[in-house]
Amino acid sequence: MIRVRGLSKSFNGQTVLAGLDFDVPDGEILAVMGSSGTGKSVLLLNLIGLMPPDSGAIEVNGVAVTRLAEPELLKFRRHVGYLFQDSALYDFMTVEENIAFPLREHTASGLAVIRARVDELLRMVDMAGAGGKYPSELSGGMRKRAALARALALGSKVLLCDEPTSGLDPVRSRDISLLIRDLSKKLGCTTLITTHDVRNAFRTADRALVLHQGRAVACGTEQELRAVADPFVREFLE
Ligand SMILES: Nc1ncnc2c1ncn2[C@@H]1O[C@H](COP(=O)(O)OP(=O)(O)O)[C@@H](O)[C@H]1O
Ligand SMILES: [Mg+2]
Fold it and tell me: Topology of 2-79+156-237 in CATH?
């Protein structure tokens, strides 16, 4: 469960988040939708404690993130899978080495166990056989899938994805959207994605929230959102 209450964040007098409230119940997938520059990435950074809010409360699976000190934050982040917008794979490591990295860093597993887990993760993202490639040899869609495998390596039950379809063509966008949904449901994750891609948001998510001027102006299923009268929401959904 992710619970956000009264989350506010400003930079040099510019308000980005203005008392944002929402929940993601256990096992649900929420899409936070908004135009560029509305604060989607800022929200995610707040959720994993990489940026402190000015005020408000964030709870992730019972952990009050905003109250954690740095050592507890490091521990907390291991239980949250994070897919960065640019994939953020290590260029000097192969796909296999990238996926193995969190397992080497944060578990006591031996080589054989890590290798078996990496193979399992590669199969999960449909990349069996591509583990020996370097990120520079991969298409954008494959980089996203490799990064997703790495994000899931430690078995996190919370998954955060920042604009998972950005930079991808329509077919790759659909594929990664459906893959995130499929894996999230199979693994029982509570998932939050950010996006300005309305079509794919609903391919992935159970519900979507429209972020505008720092607040949730609407939140619901696709059907519920399409019935909202608010002119901004209507325009955004078109
Ligand atoms: N570290 C920062 N310092 C100052 N301003 C920032 C910082 N991070 C984000 N912002 C500002 O906050 C706003 C929201 O940014 P962001 O969350 O990246 O938008 P989105 O991800 O929705 O495109 C932007 O106006 C951006 O310039
Ligand atoms: Mg962003």
Answer: Rossmann fold (3.40.50)
